[in-house]
What does this fold into?
Amino acid sequence: MQTPHSALNISGFVSDVIGALQNILAHSQVIIPALETPYSRFPNTEHSTIELEHQSVIEIIVQRQQQLDTVLHELSDLEAVIDSVVSIIGERRQQSDAVLDEISDLVAVVDSIKNIHQQVVEKKEKIMQSMNLHKGLLSALWRLPTEVLSQIFNHCLSETRLFARSTFRAPMLLTRICRRWREVAVGTPGLWCRLYVEADDKDMLKAAFCYDLWLKRSRGCPLSLELGYHSSTRLRSLLQPYMSHITSLQVYVNYFRGRHPQLFATDFPALQALVILGMTNHDIPTIAQSISQLPSTMRSLKFPDMTPFFDIETLPSFGPVCAYLTDVQIAVCHPNAFLHLLQLCPNLSSLNVHVTFSRNEPMQSFTHTKLQSLHIRVILLDLSFTCPLSDLFNALSLPNLRALEAWCNSGRNGCKAPNRRKGYNGPNTYWPHDDVMAFLARSKCLLETLTIDGRDDI
It folds into this structure.
């Protein structure tokens, strides 16, 4: 049971505590030690320097550990005092109004101690930051030769996508890590050879500087560009200094169409690969004319939308560039147009083609000696055909074929699964087993993969 005398003792104890704490506060000052060293800025990555001064770095780390231990001890003592004072405050809040002044004094003391505690926490963080920085100097990462680091950076790039100017992806992200990484990234032309460009007239003035800086870092290396659907009339002037370096280009058809096209096929003297998106039947004459003007460096031509369907009269308008193509993705009308495409492209090694069947047509035998990969999708416009691929395989020989993938689509029910028996028994069995086997025997090709309607047979 508490008596007036015991209360007096407690009050005197609290007064003594307050007096002692105020005296401590009056003489307390948090001093941040000097943590700056020759290594505090981004590390000197010269291998020889690291080796010569290795011992001094370790000594700094040991010193930082000692400082950290001292700070942790200070924090522990301060936290014990805070807990003690807070406990007293809790007890005194339950007492009479006579001790409110004492509580106010205690609260003020706690606030001051908390302020000191925060300063000591900041001191701890600075010491830990300095210690971690110097520990990093011992890592082999900082001693990697520039050539090795550059190769690592190259592997940070996406293999399939071209990225816009994003600071959250390589290569822009690599320039934000440290000074040395920025220097290596900026000095590696291969990181800046691929770019996705999209800006309308409103945004182009702001974006043009960044695009130009990006392309300058490629330092004359072959460029792969993807131009987005929304474009600017200033695009041509932006790309003009780099036209001779562009070897791969993906564009929408609107760049070539209209009364004032923004790009011309003759603008790209070194172009090797062209992908055109968004075409319609009305664009065929314009695009065919543009393709006919492409340089002899062309090797790949793709229409990934698989529209429109080019016919046998349109294909020759592609001009002499067909003779240089080795990789084509296209849709054609009727099997004879497919055979004519092979005739126009004697150096073709890979072909992804959609072919429509709407009528029976006589086909002349044809041998293509260089085609290695054929992906063909048959689209039936007349469901009366029992076996649309039969005549095509009977007319074709591909002695160098390594991979064959064949699909069949119809307007209503699609194509039946391949018949595992010889021949094609029944009116809806579209896979000509015997004809394909005869085609393979006649071609004498070393076929490695055969895929029929998504099934790997070999």
Q: What stands out?
A: Confidence is low (pLDDT under 50) at residues 1-6, 411-429, 454-458. The chain is about 40% helix and 15% strand. The first strand starts at residue 194 and ends at 197.
